Amino acid sequence: MHIGRSPSSSSTRVVVLTADAAFGASAHATFSASSAIELVIVPGHLADVGDTLDISGATVVVVDLDAGRSDEMAALARLTARVGQWPPVIAVTQAFDAAVARTLLQLRVADFLVKPVAAIDLVRACARVGRGTGSDEPKDAKIYTFLSAVGGAGVTTLAVQTAMLLLNSGRARDKPSTCLVDLDFQHGAVADYLDLEPRLNLAEIEPRPDRLDRQLLEVMLSYHASGLAVVAAPNRPAEMRSFDPDVVTRLLDLVSANFEYVVFDMPRTWFSWTDSVLLGSNRLYIVSEATVPGLRHAKQLVIAIKERLGNGPNPQVIVNRFKQSMFSSGLRLSDVQQTLGDAFVSAIPNDYALVREAIDRGVPLDEVTPGNKITAELKKLVVDVAAPKAGDRKPAALLKKLKLSAAR
Question: Which CATH superfamily is domain 142-386 in?
Fold first, then answer.
């Protein structure tokens, strides 16, 4: 059972738990300027009072905790489990690293801030996570992540076509439904496949990841003629580089907050932020080809991900460009199923000519050949999964006054 006020409530109640008197005073000064906001400051450590914290009727819960203490993180896990999807929880920490990011993503906190926290940043975070759409749609985006087991398996093609399918199945009409994110910053091909100009400027974000907000994201989005939103950076084939995992986790959070569906095209190289992205995924697909080495690599990757992520998303294997003829000496479907076991989820038919034409024209496969077998197989794989379940609900918009308090 989810704890929180009814979506029909018009009040705005912010609950702040902190043992830091200075942070509590800052929160009081920030929110008390608006008579429309009821601020409740609870003194104490999360590990001591988190289990009895009264969050009934809360719009947003802000938790100031010590991420270096295991008992504090365990208390946060209990709180988020008790809360469910509403009210949203914002974590405030003194330190931040990749391990903390992974844990916060696993716990699905709505946002996180690192001290010192500017008043305007706290207000923006509360306003964003507490904002609903007034509809009954689910709040969280569904995230589909594609990871290649071997080079040249066609992972970008499948990611692009999946995004196109999800675009047409979107339910909300007051915002774009689907965003495709190319996280291969060295050899990414999403923008080329769709004939778009990549606009993600990593150099601008990396020094100040806290600047990444909806306005900056909009500047860095590219839009396909179909309406698909794309996040892609210009290729840097001669540079082997990574960047602060905070940049990716903030990008993941921001995109997820603004779209119904998000599709990630992952690089084969494992970076410091890869775990965080995979842990935030609802569906994780490993793409392989129908060869013995390809299937072996896919199986090894499935095992490695399960060992590394524990209770994270269950990796499933897609065998791309599969072709089986009656008298062929190649791998049969039964061979694939026997090798991959329960991890095998789909075999995508081979139609190289169709895919090549779609890539050259920068259009979906269905625009080249309506009702083709590749799209039909992908529909069974992703569209049925994306269908809404009866009873899924989303809280209404409740935080319209928050931004005003920061301006006073």
Answer: P-loop containing nucleotide triphosphate hydrolases (3.40.50.300)
